[in-house]
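Worked Example 4.2. Consider the chain below.
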Amino acid sequence: MILKQHENGKYEILHKKMIEHEERSMLDGQIHHIPAVARVIRTIKNELELEVGPLTKVCVAAAGRALKTVKGRSEKDLSLGDISSQEEVIHMELAAVQQAQYQLASLLDENSNLLYDCVGYSVLHYYLDEHEIGSFIGQQGNRASVEVIATFLPRVVVDSLMKALDEAGLEMEALTLEPIAAINVLIPSSMRKLNVALVDIGAGTSDIAITAQGTVIAYGMVPIAGDEITEAVSSALLLDFPVAEQLKRSLTEKTVVTYTDILGFPSQKDTSEVILTIEHSIESLADGITQEILRLNAKAPQAIMLVGGGSLTPQLREKVAEKLSLPIERVAIRGLNAIQSLIPSLKEEGPELVTPVGIGIAAKENPVKYVTVSVNGKTIRLFQVKKLTIGDALIAGGADLSKLYGKPGMGLMVRLNGEVKMFKGKIGSAPSIEMNGVPCTLSDEVLEGATIHYEAGHNGEDAEISIREAFDDHSVKTLWVNGEEETFETHYYINEQRVGLNTFIRDRDDCYYRFPSTLSDIFDLKGWNTETKRSHFTIFVDGKPLTLPTKLTDSVHLNDQSVHHHTSWNDGDRLVYQRVEEEQVTLKHITDALYLNLHQSCTVIFNEEELTLVRPLYSFYREEEKLRMDTVLHAQERLVMKKTDQQPFIFQDVFTKVELTLQPKPGESLILLKNGEKAGFQTEIQTGDELLLKFEVLV
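Applying the procedure from the previous section yields the following C-alpha cells:
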C-alpha cells in the first residue's frame, strides 16, 4: 500500500496490492521462511514499481501476535527501612518487570531460544500489607509490593523482518507494531485517557491492545480467530475450506445461501440456520477474546473496537458485549471511515483494511526506533516503543535489578530483660550509575550511543551491638564493707553466663543485667551465706574435747542501723556484717552434754514440811576460777572437773536449809526425833525420814 500525505496532514491511499503466500512461510506473525517471504515482498515491490517507479525504502510493522504480555511483582520488607524516594519506587517497578521477564522465560517451551525485549510496562497496583495504596512514599507498614503488566517482543521477529526486506532490496525506513498501528489511527492520544480495548480479529489470531491513563497499557493475543469459524462452517456443511470461507463471508450479506458440498449435493439454507449451526464456535471466539481482555485489564473496559476481517463474524459483537456486561452500543466494528486522518479514495472501507492503513500512518508519525547503547562494555540495541530509561537499558544489559540495591544487613532479634527487641542492620547503599561519565538515575532517559556504567550497591552491615549498648544503663557505686571501701557495678548476662561490658550479642540471645542494689545482692557476690545454720562448739573438759551443736545468725547494720537482708543501699553507705552465735554456751550446756548427776540429794519431812537437801558432787574450774552454772563459756576453752566424795546426810544438814526461830523457855530442853525416835545432830538421815525438832520441860 502506498500512502500520500497531503499538506493538510491527511493521508490518501494511492495504490494497494495484495498477494497471498503460496506456502505457509509465516505462522502467527513470525517469519518462518525468509527466502519465501522475501519473494512475496519482491513480487509486490515489482508490481508497484510499474505504477510509481523505483522503491527503496519501506515502512513495516511487527505482528502484534508476537508480543507477550506478562504480569510481574516485586516486594520489599519495610521493617528494614521505609521507601523515601521515587527512585526506590522505580527500582521496585523495574524489579517487577524483570520478574515478569523471568516468568515469561519459564512459560516458554524449554527448547525455545528466543530472546525478548521489554517494549513497555504499566503499573497495575501498589500494595501496602496487601492493601491497595496510591503511593509508598511516607507510608509505614511491614511489606510493600508493586504489580506491573509488561509487554515483550522477540528480537528474532524484527531481525527476520529486516533480513527478508534486505533480500527483497528494501531498506526499513520505519518500524511499528500492528496493534499500535491500528490503535494509533482509531484511538488518538487525546482519547487514551479512556479505557478502550481494540481487538484485531484476523485469520489465525485475535490481537488485543488496551488504552488507559493516556497510554497503551497492555497487549494480548488469542490463538483463535476467523479460521475457527470457517472450519466450523466446513464441518457443519461438509464443505472444502476455500468454499466454506466464501460462504462464511456471505453470511453478513445474504439471507439465504446456496452451496454444493464435497459429495456434489447442492443445498440451500437460511443464513440464520447456518449461524445457529456454528453458534458454538462463535461463542468460543467471543469467550477467548473477553477472557483475555479481562486478564489484561482486570475489568471490563469502557468501550471495545473490533477491526480485521474476523470482526464481521455474525453475532460476535453482540456476544462480546453480553459477556462483558456492556451495552451493545459500547462495542463497535470500525472500518476505514473511522480513520479521521484518511481521505476516502477506495470503494472498500471494511475493517480488514484498518491495520494496513494504520501501519503506514503510525510508522510515519510514530516510528519505532532503535537506540544503541553500551552497558558495562556490552553493546545493547533497545527497541524504542516508549521513552527509554536507564532502567530499561540495565534490564536489557542483563543487570539483576533485585540485587542492584545493596541488601540491608541482617538484624538481631534478642530478649532484653524478658522483652523481645529487634536491632536493624544497616541499610544497603544505592547503585552507582553513570551515563557518559555523568551520574544518573534509573528514570533518566537513555541517549543514543550512550555509554552506561553501573555498579551494584553494597550490602549493609549486619547489626552489631554490645551488651552495654543494648541496655545503655550502667551504674558504678561505692559501699564501705566492714570498714573497707569496695566498688560495685552493673553485671551483664547472656544465656545465664556473666559477660563483660563489650561482649557482642548474637541473634536470639537471652540477655539481662543486674545491679547489686540490695544487701542480699552484696552478700551473694561476696559468697556470704546469710541463712541461719547450725555450727559446732568445741570445749575441753579434763583434756577431752566435747562438741556441742549451736546456731549461727547474722548481725547486719547499715549506717549504724540494724536492717534486714533485702534493704537497698546507696552510694557511700557503710555496711557492717558479722556472723554470731544465736545463743551463748554456759556451763549448764556442758554438764547436760556430759549427762552427769551433779548433786547428791535427800528429801525428808521436817516439822511436817517437805525439805530437800542438796550437796554438789562436781565442781568445774577455768584455771583458778570456780564456775557457776550460768557462766558463759567460749570455744576451745579448757575446763577442769573435780568430783566430791559422796557422804551420808546427817540431821545437822537440815539446818543449812531452814532457819530456827523457836526460842526455848526456862527449863525446856531441845529434843530431836527421827521417825519418832530420839536422834542427835550426827544421826544419819535418808530420803523419806520424818524429822522433828521440839522443846520439852525436863523433869
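The chain has a mean pLDDT of 84. The longest strand covers residues 544-558. Compare this with Example 4.1 before moving on.
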